Structures are given as C-alpha cells and as structure tokens.
Amino acid sequence: MKTSIATVSISGEFEEKLSAIARAGFDGIEIFENDFLAFDRSPAEVGQMVRDHGLTVSLFQPFRDFEGMPEPFRSRNFDRAERKFDLMAELGTDLMLICSNASPVSLGGIDRAAADFHELGERAAKRGLRVGYEALAWGRHINDHRDAWEIVRRVDHPSIGLILDSFHTLARKIEVNSIRSIPGDRIFIVQLADAPLIEMDLLYWSRHFRNMPGEGDLAVTPFMQAIAATGYNGYLSLEIFNDQFRGGSPEAISRDGRRSLVYLMDQVRRVEPDMRIPVPAMPDRSEVSGIAFVEFAVGDDDGRELEALLEILGFRAVGRHHSKAVTVMRQGEINLVLNREEKGFANASYLVHGANAYAFGLMVDDAYAAHSRALQLGSEDFRQPVGPGEIQVPAIRGVGGGIVYFLDRKTSLGDIWDVEFEPIAEDQTTASSVGLTRIDHLAQTTRYEEMLTWLLFYTSQFATRKTPMVDIIDPAGVVRSQVVETQDGRLRITLNGAENRNTLAGRFIAETFGSGSQHIAFETDDIFATAEALAHNGFKSLVISPNYYDDVEVRFGLDPDLVERMKAANILYDRDDAGEYFQLYSPTYGEGFFFEIVERRGYAGYGAPNAIFRIAALKRHLRPSGMPR
Ligand code: MG
Ligand code: MG
User: Fold this and answer.
1) Are both 14 and 92 inside the same structural domain?
2) Is the confidence at residue 524, as pLDDT, over 90?
3) Looking at the domain assignment, is residue 142 inside a domain?
4) Of 428, 451, 481, which residue constitutes the final position of a domain?
C-alpha cells in the first residue's frame, strides 16, 4: 500500500513537514504550487529535499480552469501547461492534477473537453508525463466523477487518466458503486478526505472542514471499497484542508493521517479480499468489555488524601503490590490503583502533572491482539521492567501522554490482582461499599485541536462508535464534547475539547500541563441509597444551586417530593427517549479532578444539559465567596 499526503494538510515549515510525513511512514507527498511560491528554493532543490527524506512527489497540483475554454484562453492554457510540465520535470514528478473548470468563461461539452485533453495528452506523452482529471464538486460544467470519467474515456489516451477524490464524490452524495465499472489502471491517483456533516457551501466546507478518513461522517469506506474493486493499486493520498490541522502539530497530524489510512484499508480488506492494493493483515478492532482499572500517580501526601476520599466513596484497599508502592482499592467491579512509586513512568507523570489518573486498563477479548493492532496503527509500545513472577501487561502510550493497558480473560493477564498483589484483610479497614458497581464512563479533557486525534485513536483501535459532537457552554467559553462508546455501553469515554483556558476544562489542561482523564463516573443501581451511605461516610457532594431544582421540576414535570430528595442530596436529573438519568458530583480533588456517580434508568446519554450547572458549581467551589476570577 502506497500512501501519500498533500503538504497543505499539515502545518509547519516545508522541511519540518517533510520530516514529520516521512517519520509517520508515508511514501510520498502531493505538492501544491504554493508550497514553493513562498519558499526560497528552486523546484529542483525542493524535489531533492523530498527525495532526501525518502519520499517521492506523488502529484503536482492544482492546474485550474483548463478544459473547454474559448480562445484566446485556450491557447494560453496550453502554454501555461507546458511551463508546469517544465516545473514537474525539475521537481521530479510525472503526475499533474487538473481539476474541472470553474471559470464562468468556460464552455461545456464532453467532446470539447475530451479534445482539449487529447491535445494535452500528446504534449504530456512527449515528456513522459501524465495528467489526471478530477471533478470538483463545484465545477461549472463537470462536477460529478461519472462525467469526468466519460471525458477521460473519450480521450482514450494513455497519458490522460481520472483522479477520484472522496470529498467531491461524497459531498454531492453521488452513488459510489458507479466507480466499480472504471478500469483500475485508468485511475491515476485516489485522494481521500472525510468531513463532518454540516450543511454549507461546498467550496467553504471543502477548504476548511475536511478531516482524515474516519474522523468525519462521510462514507469513505464504501467509496474506497468501490475503488479497490476496480483493481486500482496506486497511491492513497490524503488531501485535507482543515483550519485546526493547519494550527496543529505536524507530527501528530501526520501520524493521524497514516493511522486513518491503515484503519481505512483494514476495513476495506475485510470486504474486498481480492483487491490489488497490498494491505498487511492485522487483528480486528478489539471488543472491550469494560474498564478493568484506572491508575493514579500520586505522591505521599496527596496519595493519603486520595485514599481517604476513596474510602469515603466506599472503596476498600484490597491488595498491596508484592514489590512496588502500589495499592488497589475496590468496590463492585471497580478497581482503582494508587501508584506511589518513586521511579518509573508513574513517578515521572506525577512530577510533571501532579496527582493524576495517568493510566487505565481495558478488559478486551484478546490483549495481545489488541496490542499488535495498536502498534500497526502507529501507537507507541510501552513497557517497564517487571520483577520476578510479575506479568508484563501489554500496553501502549495513549494520546495525551497517558498509558493504556490491555487485559483479557483468555490469558493470565486477567489474574493480575491475584498474581501481583498481597490481599489486605477486610478487618484492617473501616470502609464499606456505598453501592458503586462499575465505571460508567471516563471523561477525558483535551485541547480542542486534539479532539480528532483522540477520537481516531479510540475508534480505530476498539469496536466503538462515536456520537455527534455537542457544545457545552461554560460561562467562560465553549467546550466541545463527543463520546466514544461500545454498543452495549461497557466502554464509554467522553472527550471534552476546551477552546480556551478560561473554561473549567481549559484550566484543567493548563494546570495539569496536559490532557488527560478529568473525571470518572461510577454507576450505582440506586443513587438515593448511595447518597445516603455517602452522607453517612461524611461525603460532601458538590453543592448545586437551588434554582436548578425549581427549573428541573417544571421542565420535566417531576414529582415535588422526588425533587426535594434530589435537592437534599445535590442530585441532578436528565431524561431522554430511553429513560431517566441521575447524577451527583464530588468536589474537585487535586488539580481539578473529580468523581461523578450516576444511575441510569435506561438513559443513553451523559447529562449534557446539566454540565453548565455542574461547571458553575465547581467554579463556586474553587472560588468560594464568589471572588472574581
Ligand atoms: Mg482533490
Ligand atoms: Mg460525566
């Protein structure tokens, strides 16, 4: 599989882009003329730089407004094309993209366009060059790949072929199976991009909102499936115009791009096994049956503080690690690990971020298969030295610098608590359960620009789906929220993207010097009983404004007695078509971390309408007596 990416897709200086692209594992780049109009090297030097990075120039683009022009534009266009051919020779590429004419001066007519391309094909052939024709979704006469193909078919010249771009086809909802009848060797290059579904002007949508396959809502997989069926075996090239990416890290965006193509082709391979594009076999996305544990890196003092808080929340220390300063606390199916080691990754994370939930373990169907898939998708392996008799749990670096461990029940990995931990007798602690059963969701906070990276990381690795993005209004700005979840809800991760540091989420990132888990939500079967047990333990829940309860009673037509009970325990409420949701929060611990307790009565969401009340309450908690920020 040959992969390529347009240099406009990522930010940075030209050379910086090249090294990021090469390191991510791409074979080639598409060059835009602007790349070196603004650059002080000659095309020959640019070509050499590309090759010095082990890359090739897969395509030179764009050449606009070529076909169907009246004189004198027509003659001028051929002169212009000859000059571009000179440039391509210097750059060292043999393929040029011509996009369908958008000029109001242009004339329609399939045969007229075919005649122009035939003449151009003759000129290109003399120089050993090729020209690909792409239908722009907003082309004046040609805006559909079926018409572009009809022109290329009539040209019938070996130097003239078709270029397919998923955005242009899918944005106009053109039936992708129309691609299947095109001979694969007549397709010169395939450009891939996804996009979120937004109703807007096609050109604006394309120039600002494209994203990597799998990050948006377009049916890129069926599109690519249809291409694979043609016998096409050329470059898969990312052509992404996205404002966020242009402000993001070239390394991260390049890695996302490569991951998106590996993920895409793994899906295509499973339905088109006879395709000519060679794609390495890899394990399927892992089935996740739950969050096996969350691990906190803590120091001595904040470790004691966290342990005390967890005891109030009904957790009991059940095991002490044989050789490390690591304790596991448990309630129901929930395992929380406190790591006080003074060396190793946890300690390094503690020193940089303070006490934080730096790692979590997922129970998957096959941990080693999950690990192998992760590495093939470009994730970084993570391992630390283990002592005698200890288990090397397969793990990777997650996004945001955390660690993701994989456990399963088919190997001894699932027995880690018995193998590596010394049980702590029940009579050594006073803590007793408040009825928490499992982790309902893990909430991770990130910079808004990184949200797609996180989303692609989870969805490409685990058998999950993503929900549409919702905006959460923090009084200080907007926080974008999107959820990755398994069908059965056994894994739920909410991602919150903060646009500025004044929002609570933004401040969390600024104060902990990075993204990560900001809250854990535990599930209970009876939130009122849990609230009572918590009160008995001395738990102080986050105080919700009384105004909230007046509003919620009216909004949902709730029984006043129920509302009184909710108010007494600071329980929030929401309802959807599937059922009811109750939630309560702890105040923040350490650098803005907090816990949530939820009861779902069939409800499928996450209480997004309540977020504004929770944020206001947390801010009051952080700044008692209403002091100005
Ligand atoms: Mg294109
Ligand atoms: Mg939550």
Assistant:
1) yes
2) yes
3) yes
4) 428
* pLDDT at residue 564 in the model: 98
Task: Compute the distance from residue 77 Cα to the ligand 1 centre, in Å.
Answer: 20
Would residue 52 count as lying in a domain?
Answer: yes
CA distance 6 to 625: 53
Q: Under 8 Å CB-to-CB from 464, ≥6 apart: which residues?
A: 285, 288, 458, 484, 485, 486, 491
Cα angle vertex 215, ends 212, 219, to 5°? 90
200 contacts 242 by C-beta, under 8 angstroms: no
- How far does the centroid of ligand 1 lie from the alpha carbon of residue 101, in Å? 13
Neighbours of ion ligand 1 (CB under 5 A): 165, 191, 239
Residues 424 and 443 in one domain: no
- Domain coverage including residue 47: 3-271
Local structure of 301: helix, strand or coil: helix
Q: What tokens does 441 get?
A: 């969701």
How many angstroms is it from 375 CA to the middle of ligand 2? 30
For residue 281, being part of any structural domain is answered with no
Q: What is the pLDDT of residues 257-274, one digit of tens each?
A: 999 999 999 999 999 999
Closest ligand relative to 581 C-alpha:
2
Domain presence at residue 280: no
Domain of 530: which CATH number?
3.10.180.10
The pTM of this model reads 0.94
- Residue whose structure tokens are 């599937």: 578
Distances (CA, A) of 607 to 464, 575, 604: 20, 8, 9
Q: Give the confidence band of 450 by pLDDT, cuts at 50, 70, 90.
A: confident
CB 609 within 8 A of CB 581: no
| Ion ligand 2 neighbours, Cβ < 5 Å | 521, 596
Ligand 1 centroid–CA 165 distance in Å is: 5
pLDDT the model gives residue 628: 38
**What's the gap in Å between 596 CA and the centre of ligand 2?**
6
Number of domains in the chain: 3
Other beta carbons less than 10 A from residue 54's beta carbon: 13
Residues 131 and 249 in one domain: yes
Give 435 Cα–ligand 2 centroid separation in angstroms.
18
Q: 65: CA distance to ligand 1 center in Å?
A: 14
Residues 124 and 204 in one domain: yes
DSSP assignment string, 576-616: ETTEEEEEEEPPPBTTTBEEEEEEEEB--S--GGGHHHHHH
Specify the pLDDT at position 400.
Answer: 82
Residue 478 pLDDT > 80: no
Q: What is the CATH number of the domain that holds 109?
A: 3.20.20.150
Identity of residue 468: P
